[in-house]
Amino acid sequence: MSSLSRGRFLHPRYWLIWFGLGVLWVLTKLPWRFAMGFGTFLGKALFPFLGSRRLISCINLQIAFPELTDSERKKLNLQHFISLLQGIIDSALSWWGSARKVKALTTTEGLHHLEKALAGDKGVILLSAHFSSLELGGRMLSDLMPEQIFHAVYRPHQNPLLEDLVAKLRGDRYGKAIPKDNIKDMVRSLRKGIPVWYAPDQGYLGKASLDVDFFGEAAATNAGTARLAKMTGAVVIPFFSFRAPDGKGYVLRLLPPLENFPSDSIEDDTRRINEVLEEQIREFPEQYLWMHKRYKKAGYDFYGRYAENHDVSGC
């Protein structure tokens, strides 16, 4: 941060955030299992008080997993909120955790797919998604390939302190942090052969939006991946990070490049990306960002109407 920024962020309105950041920093220095246990405690403690977000998450889970009973879905919803709180600690670990600690917690799958792609003459889009360990995934990958530059696309924070801090941390770690609306910078990076880490899976009503099925329900979906690949000739490699199911750290997963991508149909390409994402979500359902309004609809409140027309009493 600049000296000007440091002075501005000493205002009392930021003191609670500084306190929270201090707690997160301390947690990264404590044993990992203790930190995850603390995340579990907070998730369970806060779950009853997050009514609106809990409802959004529950509706998303009803759409995605209609085969579950109400009790199974409520349990999954609780596990989701625990995962979110653990994910905040994961983010702190990506910013301040030691390389030795992060490496000891990482199990890698499919790194050779990226290594092979980087050996070619095309750019690489690291296609990611909003799982709760998303931020840590970039850190794990950069630690595995310290000589490789990665540019990270991110959504700017509304809070100016967090925006300043996270943008700086990402810039220091990856070489450059690109705001999600800066398409020109993404194209420049890819044409220079610099991999771009891109997670376009949140609900999106912009010009590049298409209504594409996501777990059987049409969702406003960012079609930017196919457009970026077409403009730059970049290879698309799905890239995910998860908390391991055995409670022993994290899985960093890189899948084979998408073949024949992009095709002649941007709708088919976007649907294909959603199918890849659905497959990963089904394996780690509690770790996906369900409290986000994924099923946005232009012109009306999808979630309000859904609650009016469906039984959400179990939420």
Automatic annotation (TrEMBL):
Membrane among keywords: yes
Organism superkingdom: Bacteria
GO biological process: glycolipid biosynthetic process
GO molecular function, one term: acyltransferase activity
The enzyme's E.C. designation: 2.3.1.-
Keyword Cell membrane: yes
TM regions (residue ranges): 12-28
Gene Ontology terms: cellular component: plasma membrane
Pfam families xrefs: Lip_A_acyltrans
Localization (cell): Cell inner membrane
Keywords: Acyltransferase, Cell inner membrane, Cell membrane, Membrane, Transferase, Transmembrane, Transmembrane helix
Protein name from the UniProt record: Lipid A biosynthesis lauroyl acyltransferase (EC)
Origin species: uncultured Thiotrichaceae bacterium
